[in-house]
């Protein structure tokens, strides 16, 4: 599916490319740039595109995909496209309309993967981050098992090929896996994952249930002040990663991406810089030794860049669990 044929088989029989292009961008990045860089990423060889309703750029990303199909660079079936169900649409009756809205924005007939973005339900409506007059997040109360059943129906209707989750802890995953009458297991759990937060326990749990772990924030983090704690150390300046990178004449970013692929993790590379987009596809050109892998494992220090604090106070806030 991607040029190097590097894919992983999902538990429903579909295949996902192990390297994906992340399209989330800070607000100052224009929509036009989202169109340009997504086109460029496809030209560079990316076949897995990760987006979401929350990112407010699905129209542009869809346009990029369609233009690369129109000019013969790819066929629709060469592209693996992920969208995400945002927290304001977790009520079961809102799930299909939300997916249909994404498809309309994208101008595509189906997505390859549709995932629950965040287990914390927010008040339905136009506002993506609904707040009261004091600026406090307005929560909603939804049984995630009912949300999951609505996703299963979307798969049966052919609107998405596969269904999964994001930002779930193992207890939340277990709740779905143990649901009476479960029709489809989640194919993936997309979570923040990098050498400072290597998610080894969650990875082990997911592997034991044939669920793929997809890593976002794999390069540490874009310093987006609305979302990220700015006082944390900068992953790509880590001396261990830098030393390993130097040894292979690669960049610390490539080492961080390669680390995930060798652990059996599907990894998203997010960049709006053309030089780095081209560089990130070179992750298939070298291999880390077992010693390198162990050394990188040793960097784990449970540093979470994306705490998604807007969900704190909701019973489904996922990150108070150890994993």
Would you give an account of this structure?
It is a single chain. The chain is of the alpha/beta class. It is built from ten helices and ten strands. Helix 2 links the parallel strand 4 and strand 5. Helix 1 runs parallel beside helix 2, helix 2 packs across helix 3 and helix 7 packs across helix 8. The longest helix has 15 residues. It is globular, with a radius of gyration of 19 Å. The model has no long low-confidence stretch (mean pLDDT 95).
What is this entry, summarized?
The chain is α/β, with parallel strands linked by helices and 323 residues long. The protein is 33% helix and 15% strand. The strands form two sheets. Strands 3-4-5-6-7-8-9-10 form an eight-stranded parallel beta barrel, surrounded by four helices. The protein has a two-stranded antiparallel sheet with strand order 1-2.
What is this structure's SSE topology?
Layout: E1 7-9, E2 15-17, E3 19-22, H1 31-44, E4 48-50, H2 58-70, E5 80-85, H3 92-106, E6 111-116, H4 144-156, E7 160-166, H5 170-177, E8 188-192, H6 200-208, E9 212-216, H7 239-247, H8 252-262, E10 266-270, H9 274-280, H10 290-297
Parallel strand pairs: 3-4, 3-10, 4-5, 5-6, 6-7, 7-8, 8-9, 9-10
Antiparallel strand pairs: 1-2
Helix pairs in contact: 1-2, 2-3, 3-4, 7-8
